[in-house]
């Protein structure tokens, strides 16, 4: 099944829980009005990670990309029975449990297995699908591998943190190779970085059906029923909502709708995806990715520069105890931001602050990257200010300028000229670093390339396209910045 709630996100949750009162969960358990809240709101937000065909994946329908799959059909049926509209929110699988616990989504339907460890944090419905595992190999190796025992001294790939990854480690003598997405694993298989990829039977069948160079063999893993089943996850204490949805799940199982309707429908979308897999066919997806990448970069540079100026001036404050305190706070902020990964900051802004203010993913990404950029820009500006000869300040003061006027009209313009190359480098870096916000579902270039890879089952081509696009963006920005730098030097 999909990834477990890994140690990395456990740190995020722990950090969030230190800020948010734990009484929220206790209150939910004491007064369960989860069903009433959803029906009153009129919208059921479903969280999913659309990179897991045929459970959930992206497909091009009437020229537009949409999320489809058997899990989406189940979500629609659940919403219909509740009498509300279904809204699908896409994000990385690792972010789903945090999103559920922090109220970003109302339920998770994403091929998630109800393991005991997950049951401690969320409530699950009855199982709606019971699957199994296969191993996908290259067709040329069909005579070489028969099951998990055939990979002695070989390399088996699987999604990191999943039950199949643990099975590879514990039930085979093969070397386990973990990656974060199945599309990456299939790419590794085709480039002979791994000898086989362990995955669920429906996903294995989907990849094999759409790629003639691959075949699936039995895994023969010894797995528990909970490790091969799928259920819907809700926030802890949502008893009334879970009981209501269980009626839908039980009817789906009784009528065998997954195998009779939902899987065949998903198969049709999979075939549609492979009709035209040229990169030109997906130019709209890449154009959308460029649009959001530029929006994030430009906004982050603008706000980051303002934050950087304020932090730089604060770090240089001297005098009374208040100014000293401001300097220490600014220094602590800069050191903390520079000492923590941007990915953690993005997730904390989206999930942590989202507990108090329901920020959209794009806004959260811009805020996080701006705050991060501001810390680095502050050091550039501080260095630029220090590089201005002290005689310039003395001359301005002798002409009757105040400290503020001296800084604004004399020091900062010269400092900006000195640090322009560093600021340009920061702008170029932000174009590339904007890809981090894909983890919270912002549709920038990396996110769109994953959609194309999911649509087409082509691993290399979308990567080549976004490499070229990133180069065009950075090269163009570099030429523009160099033009203004020459103008400054000429002036």
Automatic annotation (TrEMBL):
Membrane topology: Multi-pass membrane protein
Chief place of localization: membrane
Transmembrane annotation, as ranges: 292-314, 348-371, 460-481
GO biological process, one term: amino acid transport
Source organism per UniProt: Lactiplantibacillus plantarum WJL
Gene3D superfamilies, per database record: MetI-like, Periplasmic binding protein-like II
Name of this chain's protein: ABC-type amino acid transport system permease and periplasmic component
Keyword Signal: yes
A GO cellular component annotation in the UniProt record: ATP-binding cassette (ABC) transporter complex
Domain ABC transmembrane type-1 intervals: 290-481
Domain of life: Bacteria
Entry annotated with the keyword Membrane: yes
Signal peptide limits: 1-30
GO molecular function: transmembrane transporter activity
Family to which the UniProt record says this protein belongs: Belongs to the binding-protein-dependent transport system permease family. HisMQ subfamily.
Keywords associated with the record: Amino-acid transport, Cell membrane, Membrane, Signal, Transmembrane, Transmembrane helix, Transport
Localization per record: Cell membrane
């Amino acid at each position: 099944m999909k990834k477990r709630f890994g140690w990395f996100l456990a740190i995020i949750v722990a950090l969030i829980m230190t800020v948010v009162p734990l009484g929220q969960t206790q209150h939910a358990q004491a007064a369960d009005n989860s069903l009433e809240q959803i029906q009153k709101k009129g919208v059921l937000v479903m969280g999913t990670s659309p990179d897991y065909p045929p459970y959930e994946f992206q497909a091009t329908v009437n020229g537009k990309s949409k999320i489809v799959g058997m899990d989406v059909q189940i979500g629609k049926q659940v919403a219909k029975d509740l009498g509300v509209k279904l809204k699908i929110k896409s994000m990385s699988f690792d972010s789903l449990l945090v999103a559920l616990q922090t109220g970003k989504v109302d339920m998770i339907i994403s091929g998630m297995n109800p393991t005991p460890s997950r049951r401690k944090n969320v409530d699950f419905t009855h199982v709606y699908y019971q699957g199994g595992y296969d191993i996908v190999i290259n067709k040329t190796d069909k005579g070489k591998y028969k099951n998990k025992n055939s990979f002695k001294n070989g390399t088996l790939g699987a999604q990191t943190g999943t039950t199949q990854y643990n099975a590879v480690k514990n039930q085979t003598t093969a070397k386990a190779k973990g990656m974060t997405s199945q599309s990456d694993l299939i790419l590794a298989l085709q480039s002979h970085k791994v000898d086989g990829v362990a995955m669920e039977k429906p996903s294995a069948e989907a990849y094999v059906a759409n790629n003639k160079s691959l075949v699936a063999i039995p895994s023969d893993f010894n797995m528990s029923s909970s490790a091969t089943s799928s259920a819907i996850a809700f926030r802890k204490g949502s008893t009334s909502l879970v009981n209501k949805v269980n009626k839908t799940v039980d009817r789906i199982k009784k009528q065998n709708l997954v195998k009779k309707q939902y899987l065949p429908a998903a198969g049709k979308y999979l075939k549609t995806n492979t009709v035209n897999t040229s990169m030109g066919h997906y130019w709209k997806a890449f154009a959308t990715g460029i649009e959001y990448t530029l929006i994030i970069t430009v906004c982050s540079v603008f706000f980051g520069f303002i934050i950087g100026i304020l932090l730089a001036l604060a770090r240089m404050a001297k005098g009374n105890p208040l100014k000293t305190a401001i300097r220490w706070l600014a220094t602590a902020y800069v050191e903390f931001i520079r000492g923590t990964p941007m990915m953690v900051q993005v997730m904390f802004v989206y999930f942590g602050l989202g507990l108090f203010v329901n920020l959209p993913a794009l806004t959260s990404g811009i805020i996080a990257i701006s705050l991060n950029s501001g810390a680095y820009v502050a050091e550039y500006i501080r260095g630029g200010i220090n590089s201005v000869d002290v005689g310039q300040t003395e001359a301005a003061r002798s002409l009757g300028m105040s400290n503020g006027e001296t800084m604004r009209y004399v020091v900062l313009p010269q400092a900006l000229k000195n640090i322009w190359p560093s600021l340009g480098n920061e702008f170029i870096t932000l174009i590339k670093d904007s890809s981090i916000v894909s983890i919270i579902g912002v549709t920038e270039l990396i996110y769109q390339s994953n959609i194309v890879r999911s649509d087409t089952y082509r691993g290399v081509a979308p990567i080549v396209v976004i490499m070229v696009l990133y180069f065009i963006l950075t090269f163009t920005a570099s030429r523009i910045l160099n033009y203004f730098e020459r103008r400054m030097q000429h002036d």
